[in-house]
Each structure stands twice: as C-alpha cells, then as structure tokens.
Amino acid sequence: MRPLTEDETKIFFEKLSNYIGRNIKHLIDRPDEEYCFRLHKERVYYLSVALMRRAAHAEKSLLVHMGTCFGKFTKSLKFRLHITALDYLSQYAKYKVWVKPSSELTFLYGNNVLKAGLGRITENTPQYQGVVVYSMADAPLGFGVTAKSTQECRKLPATDVVVFHQADVGEYLREEDSQFTGVTPGQGGEVGAENEVIRSKMKRKKPSGPPGEKAGGAGGAGGAKGGHKPAANTIGAGRDVPKPKKKKAKPEQAQGAESRKAPEG
Questions:
Q1: Are the C-beta atoms of 9 and 34 separated by less than 8 Å?
Q2: Residues 6+ apart with CB under 8 A from 32
Q3: What is the 3-state secondary structure (H, E, C) of the chain?
C-alpha cells in the first residue's frame, strides 16, 4: 500500500473527472473526516486516513481489501473504474441517463442501452461523456459512456445504441470471485484456494445409471443369495421379457371365416 505517483494521480483524476467533473474536490475535502486515495495490488482504494493508518500495520501479502475500491490500473497504465465506485459517482454525477423498466435487465446483463430503452437523459449531454445509469425509480444501476449527444438521441431509430456499457451492479454476481478481492481464482491466497476447493467439489459427480437397472441388479443378487428363483417374466438384472405380439385378423379374413361357418349351422 502506497500513495499514488504524480502520473498515476493524473490518469486516475482524468478518468474520474469524465463522470463527476470538478466534484472530485468533494471526495478529498470532506467536512466529516480526512480521506485519501491509496494504491494496493494495482487497485486504487478510497478510505479515511484513520483506517489507512490501521491498515498500514497489516502485512502486505495478507491485506486483501480496505475502504472502497474505485478501480484498477492495467499493465499499460490505463485506469478502469469498477462498479464499487458507483455510490460516489451517483452522488456527484453531472450527467445522468434513465432507462425504462423493460430495459433494466438487459443493461444488468452487460449490454448497451438502446434508444428503445432510453427513458430520460440530462439536457445538453455531449457525445462520449461519462454518465451514470439509473432506473426510472432513481436507483443507480451502473455507468457508461454516451454514444450520441442529447440532440442526436432524439433523431435516432429505436435500435441504435445510446449509451455504451461500462459497469453495472450485476457484476457483483458475475465477477465476485476476482473483481472485489484482488485475488485471481487459483493463484495464491486463501480465497483462491477456497474457490478451487468449491469448484472441485461441484465437479465431482457420481456416475448414475438407469434406476431400474440398479434395483433389478440388487433384486437379482438378493434372490441368488436367498435361493429364490427369478420370476418368469425377468431375465438376469430384472429386465422384462417382451411378450409375443398377437396378430390381428384382417377384416376380410374375419368375414370369410363367418361365411364358412354359416352353412354348417
């Protein structure tokens, strides 16, 4: 855990300002308590100074999470915001988008917002602007980037993309193994080891055959031990012997037989 360098701070604030603009100052200059940003395992955390001092006493290899994770730096030094920053983005967002109830589930599965699912949008929203996506009940669902400006959205057909998806609250279920713990499944750490154990248990499935075959086999074995003979309609492992099919007489043959019997009477 360490403070961000000058280059890292610049990249991080540029990404954050695309969503909340100059409201970044409200994250740092808070009236209740002093807060700061810290980098740990390529992830940027937002936490109070008091919590940061307590976390500094923990061993680096054992420290998994602290405060609120805002995002992660990639290997090419690009910053990607995580859904865990949604609470702060929704408080200070400059531009917002509301989706219709019929399109909420589509967005929560990681898809873009189409014009058909657009309920409302903030006036004078420019193109490629970071926006927070809300439901019509003002519940924050995620965030994205506008594909068109507000004026252009009014003329778009229903199948065109309005907002490019960036993150949604459905990621809490889809990426719970690695997104929020900083531990990749199967690569060190107690969390990764526990996940591997759970997966191995789920993969272990006992081979199951037809239920009648198991029951018949058990009955045949019990009959052999007890000296009982198998029933007449069973062979070996309790399988039914197919009964011979009776041939039905054709209507013409049946009439011919009746006509032959008539003179004898």
A1: no
A2: none
A3: CECCCHHHHHHHHHHHHHHHHHHHHHHHCCCCCCEEEEEECCEEEEEEHHHHHHHCCCCCCCCCCCCEEEEEECCCCCEEECHHHHHHHHHHCCCEEEECHHHHHHHHCCCCEEHHHEEEECCCCCCCCEEEEEECCCCEEEEEEECCCHHHHCCCCCCCEEEEEEEECCHHHHCCCCCCCCCCCCCCHHHHHHHHHHHHHHHCCCCCCCHHHHHHHHHHHHHHHHCCCCCCCEECCCEECCCCCCCCCCHHHHHHHHHHHHHHC
Structure tokens at 232: 């007449």
Place of tokens 């988008």: 97
Which tens digits make up the pLDDT trace of 208-237? 555 554 444 444 444 444 444 444 444 444
Can you tell me which residue has the tokens 């248990």? 201
- Scan for tokens 């055959």, then name that residue: 209
Task: Please tell me the distance from the alpha carbon of residue 83 to that of residue 110, in angstroms, as a whole number.
Answer: 12
Judge whether 200 and 207 are in contact, CB under 8 Å: no
Q: How many residues does the chain have?
A: 265
Location of structure tokens 């789920």: 202
CA distance 112 to 162: 8
Q: For residues 168 and 170, what is the distance between their CA atoms, to the nearest angstrom?
A: 5
pLDDT tens profile 158-181: 899 999 999 999 888 887 766 555
| Residue showing tokens 């009959």 | 223
Rounded to two decimals, the pTM is 0.63
Q: Evaluate whether 114 touches 120 at the Cβ level (below 8 Å).
A: no
Half-sphere exposure of 54 (CA within 13 A, CB side): 7
